[in-house]
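Suppose a colleague, Dr. K., hands you the sequence of a protein chain of 370 amino acids and asks what its three-dimensional shape might be. Before reaching for any lab equipment, you can write down a predicted structure in token form. Begin with the sequence itself:
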Amino acid sequence: MNFSIQKATAHASGLIIILAAIFLLPGCGKEIKAPEGKVKYVIPDSLLRILKIDTAQQCPLLNAVTLTGMVDFDQDKQVNIFSLVSGNVQDVKVQLGDYVTEGQTLAIVTSSEMAGYGNNLVVAETNLTAMKKQLDASKDLYKSGLASQLDVVTAQTNYDQAVAQLEMVKKVLKINGNNTNGEYIVKAPISGFIVQKNITNNSSIRTDNGSNLFTISDLKEVWVQANVYEANIDQVHLGDDVDVRTLSNPDRVYHGKVDKILNVLDPTSRVIKVRIALPNTDYSLKPQMFATVTVSDPGHKQALCVPTKSLIYDHSQYYVLLYKGKGDADITPVDVLNSYGDKTYLNSGVKVGDRIIASLALQMYGELNN
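The predicted structure, expressed as tokens, is then:
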């Protein structure tokens, strides 16, 4: 009896084990409920009110090339001042960087040449007075019959020559500053900044040394000279739009155009120079500043474009957030063709008219991923 019970118990235990194995096999027995999936992120209304939603559209395709450059003086509004006489510098009244106005005295030079010009003026004036008296006397004598007409003609000729001599002396004196005290007054011919100064007090100057005393430049307009490498020459054209940035203020963009291409290739650096004239009313652009110059070439092609701020780069792929309405947005991969300024051109990924999230895109991307 005990043996039968033990046999029945062993048989039941084996059956339980077999049934348990059957239920544990995949696809057999009762289906196990899968865990619930993630809930898709919905942009809340409070955030939607501050989000910027833009639209993908067809835009003229711009090709851009970035060049290095330097701010330079506008050489058409720059004056080099030379001394017209030799002498000794007695009083320099301005320093490098000073702003001067037209006609302002920059320096005083004592000069033996100026003293000679002053003396010539006195001699010419005295000679003219003498010739005038001789002419008057000849005319009186001619009226009295004591002088011939030839004497009057000779006296008139001498007087006319004395007048011409005085006029010439006055003109020479005026060209050299019109000072009769033996001093040459160096004056500013234009208003602007002293950008170069090559004299000091008590220095001697000579007219044959070829060195200028001062350079004045009106910095209300400056030039930016940019270097175009040989490989990029065909990408830069006269009239192309240009954006200029400087190291001192990289967030500020100066807009201009290529107004001169110097078609001479430097044999050493293999570059040609292009010139951009920029207004500089606040004097923020200073000569010798380094600059980054972006030249845009407006081709005749069209391409799909989206705001550059809408792009997200993750795991070697660019994405945008496609907004479908009612807080619903999808992460969409895109193929980037080119970027210029606030626009990015795409080969594929979205179509014209698609609504794109153009602000806080990175934050939204993180929320949608989570």
